[in-house]
Write a structure and sequence with these properties.
Order of helices and strands: HHHHHHHH
Helix content: 55-70%
Radius of gyration: 23 Å
Number of helices: 8
Shape: globular
CATH topology: Four Helix Bundle (Hemerythrin (Met), subunit A)
């Protein structure tokens, strides 16, 4: 007699999505697409940038920032859902990208730049508050927030320089984070962890506030130069403290 296998019970087939809607990577992607629409709207309706390299540069900057952020989100984000805090930081990244469009196009719109940059600075306090309220505090969120702040400072410094608000000294206000990064490649001990300092946050807010003020048409000349130089001194003091601390804490 031939041997036959007993029939196995049939189980109903159920489609299971590879990822869930609550997955932070999915949520990050959905928010990124939503803010992309706002980016195009701001470029066209507010700044009048309708095409060419200026709109492309804004899209490339936003897309690059989203891609890098998504990479680190996938590797280091510790929470089960994204939270509104990181969605707000993503909106701030969108604002930075939108501010780059008129810069490349040579569009002069000081009040629009002032308003959008002011909104981005205001949201800088909102995302941190939301992170604490939602229980979504993470190293990823803190790093994401810091990098967006740095990019905002650089774009605003370029705007102020292009508008002649404070001379070449204003460019220094947009470069500290990137100068510190390059120095860390040469001296690895500069890449060490730093203690939390309230003074560092205050200097960052003052830096961005002054850069935003320099966008106004009536702030410039000697006044703009004095404001920029004062913030440069504050940055030298803040970064100098961190460098000294890292030097003492090395190996």
């Amino acid at each position: 007699m031939a041997y036959t296998h007993p029939a196995s019970p049939r189980r109903p087939l159920r489609w299971r999505p590879p990822v869930r809607a609550t997955d932070p990577r999915v949520q990050f992607g959905l928010w990124a697409v939503a803010w992309l629409g706002w980016l195009v709207l701001i470029e066209v309706a507010v700044f009048g940038v309708r095409g060419g390299g200026s709109l492309a540069s804004a899209l490339v900057l936003y897309g690059g920032g989203v891609a890098v952020s998504a990479f680190f989100l996938h590797r280091t984000f510790p929470h089960a859902t994204l939270g509104l805090c990181n969605a707000v930081t993503l909106a701030r990244l969108m604002a930075v990208a939108a501010l780059s469009g008129p810069l490349v196009a040579g569009v002069v719109a000081p009040w629009a730049v002032f308003a959008l940059a002011g909104l981005a600075l205001m949201l800088d306090g909102v995302d941190g508050w939301l992170a604490r309220r939602e229980g979504r505090v993470s190293d990823f969120g803190a790093r994401f927030d810091m990098e967006v702040d740095s990019a905002l400072a650089l774009v605003l410094a370029l705007h102020a320089f292009a508008g002649g608000s404070a001379g070449a000294v204003v460019l220094v206000l947009g470069l500290p984070r990137y100068g510190f990064f390059v120095a860390g490649l040469v001296f690895p001990w500069l890449d060490g962890p730093l203690p939390a300092r309230f003074s560092r946050k205050v200097v960052c807010v003052v830096q961005l506030a002054v850069l935003i003020a320099l966008q106004l048409p009536f702030v410039g000349g000697a006044l703009g130069g004095v404001m920029a130089f004062a913030v440069v001194l504050a940055l030298v003091w803040s970064f100098g403290r961190d460098v000294l601390w890292l030097w003492r804490a090395r190996g």
